[in-house]
Amino acid sequence: MAVSLKEFDSAIEIVKAVDHEISETKNTLNGYLRRLEEIRALAEKSRRVREIVSKFTGKKTVIESEVSISGISLVLEAKVVHELVALEEVVRSQQERLVELQKAREGLKWADQIGETEGVKFLVLEKDGIPKKILLRFMSEF
Question: What is the pTM of this model?
Answer without folding.
Answer: 0.78
